[in-house]
Amino acid sequence: MKIRNCLCLLVSLLLLSSCGASTAETSADTNVSVQETTVQEETTLTDLLPDDMDFGGYTFTIAMPEALLTYEKYAMPEGETGELLNDTSLRRNYAVEERYNIKLAFHLGPGNDIIKDVQQVVMAGESSFDLVQFASAWNKIMPLVQDHALLNLLELPHANLDADYFYGHLNEQLTINGKLYTGFSNYNNSGTMPLYMVFNKNMMTDMGMEMPYETILNGDWTYDVFLGYIKDAAVDLDGDGKQENTDQWGFANLNSLTNYMVWGFDIHILQRLDNGTYVPDLRNERFVDAVQKVTELKLANPDCFAPSDFNVMNIGDLHMFMMGDILFSSTGTGSMQLRNIEEFDFGIAPFPKYDENQQSYTNYMALDNFGVVVTAQDLEIVGAVAEGLAVTSKEMMEPAYLDVYVENKLLRDEESVEVAKLMMESACIDFTRYFDFADGAITPVSMMNNIKDPGAVVSHLTSVESKAVSMAEEFFAIFFEE
């Protein structure tokens, strides 16, 4: 019997709550029970860490690509700056160092590459790295898995990989035949927001529209409702007879970033087999229709602006949305510095649902993953410190992020805070981004960039599926090697 595996895997991220009673939520699609750790006022997560581990001043080295610091700048704090997240991450590191009597050190790979550094360490038989933090946006770990360069994380002592601070329900999805070569941790992912939509509240009021908050919080924010909002919103402001980036639009973002909207439809592109492996299923009706909808939005909707050229999105150094003439956009470009917007007010929204029958919203999240090289010498230390970093990040970093989102004007009203909570409870990941067994051919963001005509969706999916199936079979055989 085949078990359907949904591409969007629920992530129980509790960024916007710091403590509460134990609860459980079950995803209808994955049958994964998402547990929240019980945290009472008198007992904290860090209280549960052992007190009797002393590693004698051991230098614990974390390797990561240098470019990771451009968007996760709190992974390697160098000193107090007065900035909340920087200083909180520094206190987190001090807490772990004191708990285990270690000293944290960092190795930065050049640019966005840490894969080559790992390969060189393993080939030399060195134990230079205790933990490797990969950047999901760039680091393709397939060669490391194929070369048996990564340790089975299930062999790590002291690390409770099924706990929520390790995103245990996601780690289970990456576990095949009792082997887990890469996983997720709250360390370096604390407080990460999924991609989401933003809307111009001033424009909405001027156009006589109701704010969508009530619709969103009631679970009625669907794709058709979204299309109703942007309908006829495009206006040729300069009267030159052409709709360009300086004009008014209903929705505007880059082609590749608009692709992320497909995750809002709770799509399924993989089937999980009885042996735990996966096969592509690119022609199931819902997936085909989801890709069709977003492709038509990008290429054929007169109220949508979705160029492939990043520079076309900007007016000077500013993202188009920041100029005040875009009704809806979505986050994901470095030039969209929402905290700098003063001329108008904005709100946030999840990606819309496929239809009214979809149970929950699903917004994409680019979680970074970690691994341990097979040449690591002292797994007792690696496992204990990995546990400590995850637990302490969960406890210290998440509450700090809420303060920053509010204080830095990313969440400007109570309704946006409630929407943020809703999104964090139903974020999703792209499974094929971590096991890229088809060279990007079935990762929706990359795949949809190759569809240039809304009428070519089915033919394109058909053309890549057979090759992807054979590549998947070849790759997953690695997990059954002795």
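^ that was protein a. below is b, sequence first then the tokens
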Amino acid sequence: MARDISAALRSGGGWFYAIVFFTLFAALAGIAIGPELSSLRSAAPAIVWLAAAFATELSVANAFHDDARDGSLRILAAEQESLLPYVLGKAAGFVVVSAAPMLVAAPVLLAMFGIAPERLAGAAVLLALGMPAIMLTALFAAALAAGLRAGGLFTTLIAAPFAVPPLIFGVLATENHVAGGALWSPEALILAALSLFMAALTPAFAVAALRLALE
């Protein structure tokens, strides 16, 4: 985790592209929709969630690729009894470098689209609730693609379909909240359940995928 964060801060690392893509996607989508505030307000939840999903998948796509290519992953696998701390460190590094800036930027983008100020914090909470499901799916796909030459593209193709459920319930929960509904709606609870489900499964499956890639 410390190594990945240090590399990102020192060189701009690939993960810093997440916040750039997130903000550019949302801003350009808003421009494409037009200046009508009612249209922007209704489309805001879908725009922000789509931007977060694409930025997350692109930033996690090559999470293990460089380590597999330069032999670091093989050394770690030989020295450690389990790769679980390594996988958790990768996930934590993404949260610090990419997910946290996106969560900070999300209320600003939603405010630009005309969402009421008192609803911005709740919308960011919902995004934080569903982002683990998207991120962990992409992380598992990255583990499957570790060592492949076209690993980034392969990761995106695998992870994209599994991002659909968090997107659906995330957009529904956010739309309900910004329209004046409760924060903890049934859609929000399902979103939390998806994140918990992926948190329970992904680490073990990612470790197994990495071990398989090294054989």
